[in-house]
């Protein structure tokens, strides 16, 4: 099977795309081409992947990338068996052209996420959310659907395959070194960037705080100042396979997401990644996060936008090695049982194979 994966928004090294889905397809014996903004991110394709460079869609500069993707799909969209798209704007790129069967991987509640797009003027956000709803209705009738969360299906007329954001789970875990905590993911205001900075200041030199992930321009200056002052370490973007290794041995992994509509029904991938690497989780009380922590008994829950509470939770774990190990081991056990991509990956590849076998279903 020849599969073309397309994104104009995500980094070519995006964890879901390049570290989970594409390896699953290659392991199943399929050939994958990835059309993505390689030059814009100064990125290289993984071994075994054919790279096609596209412009990047960013903030209000999205038209050129969308047109380039449309030109690509018009010229070679029938040269593949399946096309897997990862951005809602690519629905515009495929509309009205003949291609191989198209699958849209729905990563988020796109309409709810509009409220967090700083580049969309506040007055225009209701209109933008309405346009997203129209696009979803069109997609229900014209493309196949994959969902990162079962809850996203409620927005569509047609059911699809749920491919949750699980992760590769190591068989063994490292003992905590009790000197640092980690945050893995995009560093944005809604994901708690300013709370993480204040948390680091509260901790002072008692515990080192490390941020691993791309830093959004809206908080870049604050993060840079904190990094330069030695209050925390900001690593910036790190490829997912390397970033996961940086979790090993930390006191805890921190997830300080704000109470945003797009987060309320989503499984925070970083929580699963912390569990997989045997470190306790400290998270804000989003509903899915609470369910995961309660079921696995693997972490602590702190109030929204309360850096002092997060710092206190970290210190409580720093000073209680027995509790820290119990939570870490419980999380790792739960990750092996329920969140291991080793078992999810083949199911994803099989789902695409079924779509190819029955493209009109």
Describe this structure in words.
By secondary structure, the chain is of the alpha/beta class. The protein has 2 domains: 2-166 and 341-357, Glycogen Phosphorylase B (Rossmann fold), CATH 3.40.50; 180-338, Rossmann fold, CATH 3.40.50. The chain has helices spanning 15-27, 38-41, 63-76, 90-94, 110-113, 125-142, 193-203, 217-228, 240-245, 269-276, 287-296, 307-318, 321-338, 341-357, and strands at 2-6, 31-36, 49-53, 82-85, 102-106, 144-147, 161-162, 180-184, 208-212, 233-236, 252-255, 281-283, 299-301. Strands 3-2-1-4-5-6-7 form a 7-stranded parallel β-sheet, sandwiched between helices. Strands 10-9-8-11-12-13 form a 6-stranded parallel β-sheet, with helices on both faces. The longest helix has 18 residues, at 125-142. It is globular and about 60 Å long. The protein starts with a strand and ends with a helix. The model has no long low-confidence stretch (mean pLDDT 92).
The total domain count is 2
CATH second-level architecture of the largest domain: 3-Layer(aba) Sandwich
- Reading side by side through the largest sheet, how are the strands ordered? 3-2-1-4-5-6-7
Low-pLDDT segments: none
Write the topology of this structure.
Layout: E1 2-6, H1 15-27, E2 31-36, H2 38-41, E3 49-53, H3 63-76, E4 82-85, H4 90-94, E5 102-106, H5 110-113, H6 125-142, E6 144-147, E7 161-162, E8 180-184, H7 193-203, E9 208-212, H8 217-228, E10 233-236, H9 240-245, E11 252-255, H10 269-276, E12 281-283, H11 287-296, E13 299-301, H12 307-318, H13 321-338, H14 341-357
Parallel strand pairs: 1-2, 1-4, 2-3, 4-5, 5-6, 6-7, 8-9, 8-11, 9-10, 11-12, 12-13
Helix pairs in contact: 1-14, 7-12, 10-13
